[in-house]
UniProtKB/TrEMBL annotation:
Regions crossing the membrane: 29-53, 114-135, 151-174, 186-206, 212-232
Record's function text: Potential subunit of the gamma-secretase complex, an endoprotease complex that catalyzes the intramembrane cleavage of integral proteins such as Notch receptors.
Swiss-Prot/TrEMBL GO biological process terms: Notch signaling pathway; protein processing
Subcellular location: Membrane
Family: Belongs to the APH-1 family.
Protein known as: Gamma-secretase subunit APH-1
Organism whose genome encodes this protein: Geospiza parvula
Alphabetically ordered keywords of this record: Membrane, Notch signaling pathway, Transmembrane, Transmembrane helix
Membrane topology recorded in Swiss-Prot or TrEMBL: Multi-pass membrane protein
GO terms for cellular component: gamma-secretase complex
Subunit structure: Component of the gamma-secretase complex.
């Protein structure tokens, strides 16, 4: 039973991220480099947040639950700051690739790098969020035996999946806002990230955290879809699987063999 819980929760939490990486990133070396670069910047944010927390605890001389919301807010701001640093680095790399190409165009577009960068942030964040939980799910023990919620592992898996998708969507919106210099878009990304982090403090009241986070994920996904240039017409066209004819074949009577008299 423990193995089934472990595999099921891992598939829920990291399955979408693994599918997106394999289907959209793994075949292109440049996108893999962007993926690793995004993960590196997220790890920088984690390191900075850990150092800040250690210094904070040493200076205050206490470590209690009252400091956790402030630590979470600082971690969110550091992640978004590193996302901005990743954007600036990728912009310079894009300009360098464009100068080396024959036609003066970069092989990567802003939308693709934004998507891959967000996916890398979400994947590495999800891995750090769920690894210890998956290790505990392998046993021994029974969830909820001391009166705690028996849905801890499954809800943690769904929360991790939502976090991976949210980071992917945030990356698309954030890069577009930076490119267009739209402070409102940046503020909404940071605000929604803060809101998501704050909702997790409602656990183990999972009805109050999981539902709003998934609603936020859906709304953010629609926003990212619109930002990336998607439309409802394109979705219907994709689902219909209809291809427009490239051309029509024409018969010329002059090329036909005349019938024998």
């Amino acid at each position: 039973m423990a193995a089934a819980v472990l595999l099921g929760c891992a598939a829920i939490a990291l399955g979408p991220a693994a599918a997106l990486v394999l289907l959209t990133v793994a075949a292109e070396p440049l996108l893999l480099i962007v993926l690793l670069a995004g993960a590196f910047f997220w790890l920088l944010a984690l390191l900075a947040a850990s150092l800040l927390w250690s210094v904070w605890v040493q200076l205050s001389g206490r470590e209690d639950a009252a400091l956790l919301p402030l630590g979470a807010a600082a971690a969110v701001l550091l992640q978004e700051l590193c996302r901005f640093a990743c954007f600036k680095m990728l912009k310079k790399a894009d300009a360098g690739l464009a100068s080396l190409s024959k036609d003066g165009r970069s092989p990567l577009s802003l939308r693709r790098t934004a998507y891959v960068s967000g996916l890398s942030f979400g994947t590495i964040s999800g891995l750090f969020s769920i690894t210890n939980i998956l290790a505990d799910s392998a046993g021994p023990g029974t969830v909820g035996i001391h009166g705690d919620s028996p849905y801890f592992f499954i809800t943690s898996a769904f929360l991790t999946m939502a976090l991976v998708l949210l980071h992917t969507f945030w990356g698309i919106i954030f890069f577009d806002a930076c490119e267009r210099r739209r402070a409102g878009g940046l503020g909404l990304v940071v605000g929604s990230h803060m809101l998501t982090s704050g909702l997790t403090f409602l656990n183990p009241w999972y009805e109050a955290s999981l539902g709003p986070i998934f609603i936020l994920t859906l709304c953010t996904g629609l926003w990212a879809f619109s930002t990336a240039g998607g439309s409802f017409h394109n979705v219907l066209k994709c689902l219909s699987c209809k291809q427009e004819p490239e051309g029509q074949a024409m018969l010329y009577s002059a090329l036909q063999v005349p019938p024998e008299g």
